[in-house]
Amino acid sequence: MTHIKIASAASRIWWGASVLSLLAVIGVLLFIFFFVVAQGVPAFRPELFTTVTNGVAGGLANAISGTLLLVVLGVALVGIVGFGTAAWTVEFASPQQRTAIRFCVDVLAGVPSIVVGYFLYVALVEDLGWGFSLIAGAFALAIIMLPYVVRAADLALSAVPRELREAAVALGSREATAFFKVALPWAAPGVLTGLLLATGIGLGETAPLIYTAGWSNYMPSLALTHSPVGYLTYVVWTFISQPFAQSHQLAYAAAALLMLFIFITNLVSRTALEAWGAQRHR
Amino acid sequence: MTTGLPYLQRRPAQFLFRYGFGAAALITALLMVLMLVFLVVFAFPAIKFNGWNILTGITWNIGNQYGSGVVTHNGVSAQPGASFGGLVFIFGTIITSALAMVLGVPISILVALALVYRIPRRIKPLANAAVELMAGVPSVVYGLWGLVVLVPWIGQRFGPFVTGHVGKLPVFGGEPGSGNGLLASGVILAIMVIPIMVATMRDVILAQSSSIFEASMALGSTSWQAVIRAVIPSVRSGMMASVLVALGRALGETMAVLMVSGAAVNQFPSNIFQAVNTIAAVIVSQLDSALTDASGMAQRSLAELAVVLFLITLIVNSIARAILHGADRVRESR
To answer: ipTM of this predicted complex?
Structure first.
């Protein structure tokens, strides 16, 4: 009988360790979250949002608007290419082509972001002479987001019921009409979930932007080339290593803002889009 | 089927539909090859200049820009005194990721099991959301936390405590260091890849039918034995793939490591507390000095390092894919 007792005691101990690990992991998350928020939120004054960074002090207006510009442009680029890729894969690709595309997307997801950044630095910033710029940064973000957008859209479009399209074609619509008027509305929540995921990823990227967007203390101009852009992650990275309390405060504020933005995109995709998507399956 | 110009004139929408999407797919398919080929072509003079030194050399020195003359090797020139040895960075990349896996894999398995078998149904969505949120935290934020919380703790408390007790033992003994270094990098990387592994492992275990668990229980196992001896072995390939995908992520991680690694150049860490450096981190930290190299060889050597990193992660991810292809498929999630 003793070995049964030992086994059940061991079972209980291991499950205890298992639950403790979960609590520890969530504890670390809460620690990081509240640490950053507690340090950063006191800096949330109106000037933070209205003035630009000035050396190691000032506000974050340039970095906030730069981050939003880069992400919006990046998502627009990846929206077109990523959605197009998924649509072609689902609509036109032969099974072999489909496997090949999915393979390429998986491989792309594994490419380190710094490699993407260095590639674009040499190709766009230097060779094409665009300089550190909005468009180079947006391209960097778009390439990094691409696999996630393609996967989400591929999944959503593949899940459109066959009968729905057949019905549309049987009623006389062309393939393009059937796609845009019938399949796309059905798959929209899934496609948007992918774009929101991409937004979250774009908000938090740093390494590839250092090489493509550069950094600027000024408000971003809307020029696509030859005009570097500031962004929040750069502030977190550099200002925390400065020996001034003011710059630390800015770094924490930038980190808190990033967490907040990412939290919101996460929340929207988890609640609104999930509810919208769930209607489809009733 | 009609194609080409007449088709475009008759049915512009249809034409755009088919070929517009086709063009997008072509871009996606060619992107990876384009990046690799471009970097290799750009790095080619460096590949000739460096030879095996990039993989075996320890000294990274862009040479003296004010020195006279040039150093020429295999018909390619660089600044005098230049040597682009990448072994310190390659070693650092592998050792930090290995440490992250040693710390992260057991914890991830335990957490995934807790999520599947032990968390009450009502709080499950909350716990899952927490794990997913954790995967979405930007790497600079982990780096920030590592720099101001973890590094001082290791440098002032944990490091001196351990080295003080084990003395001259290899790996753990010797100089406690400043806190920036191998241990801090490994811990931060572990924290970053745990949510990725937990999410995929949870999905892998959930996808496996519960009948294996129940059958094992019916044969008299404890619930833990059922999980360890029956459930986990049945999803071994999915678990392996999950670990390899996370490893690929750790190998390529830049910012968090850059902030806590201590940025070692030209030397290996003598114990887990000493400074290290990784390929990804050095590409960022060396850019400014590489730009001062008039011969351009430092920039090209950084590109060569980028190619090395690209290939390492490509191999790791390909193995993960091959394993998955052989057995049950998991959808990778971030």
So the answer is: 0.91
Take residue A51 and report the two structure tokens written for it: 């003035």
Does residue B253 form part of some domain? yes
| Mutate which: A6, A13, A88, A181, vs B, most B CBs within 10 A | A88
Nearest CA-CA distance, residue B282 and chain A, Å: 10
User: How many domains does one find in chain B?
Assistant: 1
Residue B151 domain flag: yes
> Could you give the CA distance from residue A56 to residue A46 in angstroms, rounded to a whole number?
18
Distance from CA of A260 to the nearest CA of B (A): 10
Q: Is the residue at B153 inside a domain?
A: yes
Average pLDDT, stretch A203-231? Answer: 88
Task: Measure CB to CB from residue B29 to each of A100, A252, A259 and give the nearest one.
Answer: A100
Task: Report the sign of the C-alpha dihedral through residues B174, B179, B182, B186, in that order.
Answer: positive
pLDDT tens column, B44-87: 988 888 888 888 888 888 777 776 667 777 777 777 777 888 89
CA-nearest residue of chain B to A20?
A: B111
Q: Do A32 and B142 touch (CB under 8 A)?
A: yes
Asked if B253's CB is within 8 angstroms of A81's CB, the reply is no
* CA–CA distances in Å: residue B249 to residues A10, B245, B333: 34, 6, 12
CATH of the domain at B273: 1.10.3720.10
The domain containing residue B245 runs over which residues?
Answer: 89-326
Kindly state the average pLDDT of the residues A178-182.
85
Look up residue B280 and give its two tokens.
């990804």
Residue-level pLDDT at B191: 95
The answer to whether position B282 is within a domain reads yes
Interface contacts (A, B; CB < 8 Å): 252
Residue A54 identity (one-letter amino acid): N
Q: Give the Cα separation of B320 and B334 in Å (integer).
A: 15
